[in-house]
Amino acid sequence: MPELPEVEVVKQSLERKILNLRIKKIKINDGKLRYIVDKNELFNLVGKKFKKIERRSKYLIFHLEKHITMIAHLGMTGKFFFIDKKNKKFKTSFYYDLNLEKDKKHDRIIFIFQNDEKLIYNDIRKFGFVKFCRAVDYYKNRHIRDLGPEPLSKDWDQRYFKRYIFGRNRTIKSILMDQKFVSGLGNIYANEILFLSKIKPTRKVKKIKEFEIKKVINYTKKILKSSIKYGGSSIKDFSSDNGKKGIFQQYFKAYGREGKTCSNIDCNSIIKRTIISNRATFFCNKCQK
DNA sequence: AGGCATGTTACAGG
DNA sequence: ACCTGTAACATGCC
Length: 289
Prior knowledge:
This protein has 2 domains: 4-140, MutM-like, N-terminal (N-terminal domain of MutM-like DNA repair proteins, Alpha-Beta Barrel); 158-284, Helicase, Ruva Protein, domain 3, CATH 1.10.8. The chain is 24% helix and 22% strand. The chain has helices spanning 4-15, 39-43, 100-103, 142-145, 158-165, 172-176, 187-197, 210-229; strands at residues 23-28, 50-56, 59-64, 68-73, 78-84, 91-92, 107-113, 118-123, 129-134, 271-276, 279-284. The chain has a 5-stranded antiparallel beta sheet. A 4-stranded antiparallel beta sheet has the order 2-3-4-9, covered by helices on one side. Helix 1 runs parallel beside helix 8 (210-229) and helix 7 packs across helix 8 (210-229). The longest helix is centred in the last third of the chain and has 20 residues, at 210-229. It is elongated. The structure holds a DNA duplex.
């Protein structure tokens, strides 16, 4: 689920749900996430309201009353569910639907609000985490501090790109996934961006031409915005009834398409798969140079 | 049974 | 110190 567009959709979704609800109670089902959840810090949120949510890269920054901030990362399988109480029956009102019976055991943290609505942090593989800090200090947090520019910001431009890759000996795909270079891209979008830019993922950055840098930047901005508009990508199967689901995965042109025909209409080549930086890498040998 | 999975980081080696 | 690539984390699915 979570690269930049997915996290942005989560942020927007939660912002419409949980702001100004007062936390009545918090339960921890399993506090052994990527880092052990600090219970004192977590329970300190009881009685407070969420006031604002920000996204930085793939991190969610929850600002509460009393200048308390919770930093959350979803890892690979982390999800936030909001549960409201309409029709006397709890239901998810979140873009990514949940088969409650099956997935309940992966609920890790449950925030219960005064009106009995709930916010649940659910995480199968437990690579996600929550940490706490003072609001003014969150950007000093060690996870946030060294992040590169946001790919949708003006700071991530041709000049920066050129300067960063100068003298480096890495593949273009590995650098796109490097959060210090640009923050928020992951394996799926790196594959898609390079397919659209017609650059082979294995190409070394020193061999990337100026006009190609421009393409990478432009396609990155384009595809991220487009994915956000479509509610992000939901890769795993999910049941859907009243919740909204991300549908951007149906527009993937390279990711997960090994053995299928290239998406470019004038090409009948087969999408290949290889490994870069321990991650599945998909490309068209003919279209991507 | 073994390989694979949307992420991050500790560590090893140059 | 810098740069790069690999393995590990935990769980489920095919």
